Amino acid sequence: MRILVTASFGDSEEETKRVCAAVRNAGFEDFCFVRDVEHYQKVFDDPKELMKRAKEEIEKSDALLIDMTDKPTGRAIEAGIAYALGKRIIVIMKRGTQIKDTTRGIADIIIEYDIIEDITSKLGKTLVE
């Protein structure tokens, strides 16, 4: 199963690597647009081309993972695309984070964590059920 891990330029490269490693350690293939396509740099000058390419990568994925701890907006658009395409949506968030009902409405799985590595065991158990 290929899981697209959402990230943005506001996220630290280290944090993105930790989330991706947690997905891999759970036994899944990870793909991160910021890491694998943009290489942590601005590559697209045309926002329409950026979103077209993001949609193509979401289409190739089985699920999308989004961390809602910091109320992401750009990444939430990717979650909306995944939802419209019928992809599984995995929402992760630091314990105690409040999320909107609209997020709960598109989420197939919601995982709370204290440290990002906590998602590994929960992700593996939840996706195989």
Tell me briefly what this model is.
By secondary structure, this protein is α/β, with parallel strands linked by helices. The protein has one domain (2-128): Rossmann fold, CATH 3.40.50. It contains 6 helices and 5 strands, in the order βαβααβαβαβα.
Alpha-carbon Rg, integer: 14 Å
User: How much helix, percentage-wise, in residues?
Assistant: 40-55%
The N- and C-terminal alpha carbons lie at a distance of: 14 Å
- Sheet/helix structural class: alpha/beta
Uncertain residue segments: none
Global mean pLDDT: 92
Q: How many distinct folded domains?
A: 1
Q: Which architecture per CATH?
A: 3-Layer(aba) Sandwich
Shape: globular
Find the count of extended strands (DSSP E, 2+ residues): 5
Instruction: Look up the CATH topology.
Output: Rossmann fold
**Strand composition percent:** 15-25%
SSE ordering = EHEHHEHEHEH
Describe the structure.
- The longest helix is centred in the N-terminal third of the chain and has 13 residues, at 13-25.
- 44% of the residues lie in helices and 19% in strands.
- It has a single domain, classed as Rossmann fold.
- It is built from 6 helices and 5 strands; from the N terminus they run E-H-E-H-H-E-H-E-H-E-H.
- It has helices at 13-25, 33-36, 47-59, 74-84, 101-106, 119-128, and strands at residues 2-5, 29-31, 63-67, 88-94, 109-113.
